[in-house]
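Title: Prediction job returns without error message
Component: structure pipeline
Severity: low
Priority: P3
Assignee: unassigned

Description:
Job completed but the reporter wants confirmation the result is attached to the right record. Sequence as submitted:
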Amino acid sequence: MMPETIKAVFFDMDGVLYDSMPNHEYTWKESFKTIGIDFPAEEAYMNEGRPGFSTIKYAFDKFLHRQATEEDIDKVYGEKTRLMKECPEAPILLGMKELLKYLNENGVKVFVVTGSKQPSLVDKLDAHFGVLKDNIVSGRDVKQGKPHPEPYLIALEKSGMKKDECMVVENAPLGVESAKAAGIYTIAVNTGKLNDQVLLDAGADKLFSNTQLLADELMKIEL
């Protein structure tokens, strides 16, 4: 059941706040080409939220049937980083700016929980959504990335709230698994290329087909 009283909402970033997954799909696919891996688009969405080095290890094991060396990891991730810098800026997804403004104005704490380590993260989230540094849990803050519950447990601790006073919004199966393992009510929004059932099988409590529908629904809730 959705929490009766919502005091904090934890948002994933890529594919929830920004339509950035096409950039990640492209850069993963192209960077893996440099070492002979044909990385399917679906894999980018299935592995979203996983730390970059972990995604590379996963791909080497699955497609090359060997362990990735540190040199392999540095080469692939270096190329991905280079390509990401060349990508167009990802647009804000529909309804999300309005939703976060609504939550902030009604006293609900807003956090962003992302596997990203982008140095510009803090400035971007503050400028676009009013999310300050202390309310961001990034890949730099965790030892265990999604699907481990650690990212959301850290956010929960930062919020000072009980689990049944919080909600998570995710778009990726690994993120849903992470949030559910942390014991938090989780909404999935399917902004990518995966079948809805993948997100439901990961444990999502509720599913929306796009962010505008999600925002419209949540802004009806009395806070």
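Comment from assignee: result matches the submitted record. The mean pLDDT is 94.
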